[in-house]
Amino acid sequence: MKNFLGTTKSPNYKILVNELIESCKNLGCNMSVKVHFLHSHIDYFPENLGAVSEEQGERFHQDIKTMETRYQGRWDVHMMADYCWCLKRDCIDVIHARMSKKRNFTPDSD
């Protein structure tokens, strides 16, 4: 496979990543949560992959480490639900169907 590992994003990077994931599924490989996380955030990769700061990479590893510690190496439904909720919280433009029943402590503007 060409253009996959490097510091510059290939024009067809989405196709390459999808083919990689599909090949893993066909081989019966269990993909780690890190691969799923990276795949779900593929649009956020910078044009120059080498330009990602160490701080951003460290934050990712800290988040994954917290999740791995919380579930103590068990890969079950609860861990995947937590992971999915983590992804859902990252979506800023989501409109929720119900209002929160928690009290708002900021004064209402009448």
Overall description:
- With 110 residues, this protein is an all-alpha fold.
- The chain has one domain.
- The chain has four helices and no strands.
- The protein has helices spanning 13-27, 33-40, 54-71, 77-89.
Structure, briefly:
With 110 residues, the chain is mainly α. It contains four helices and no strands.
Give the overall shape, derived from the CA principal axes: extended
How many individual helices?
4
Q: What percent of residues adopt helix (DSSP H or I)?
A: 40-55%
Secondary structure tally: strands: 0
Name the descriptors:
110 residues, mainly alpha
Describe the SSE topology:
Blueprint: H1 13-27, H2 33-40, H3 54-71, H4 77-89
